[in-house]
């Protein structure tokens, strides 16, 4: 998908629990901020990680997706850049 720019990526590692290893945020095309993206380990994927986008849970228990990519190309572009930044942050932390 040409023209999709992922910038200002922030990654906050967390104590690993049930595959969750970090949270991330980014800006897409200098126009859309996406926060609270969970990063989970996923050995079955090529990258070794998967992203879980924010969901709002209503009082009745129903979940509503707040934001998520609507096509494979966008999802892969966001995943690639967030995981690149995640690896950079982990490398700095472990020195």
Automatic annotation (TrEMBL):
GO terms for biological process: sporulation resulting in formation of a cellular spore. InterPro entries: SpoVG, SpoVG_sf. Pfam families: SpoVG (PF04026). This is SpoVG family protein.
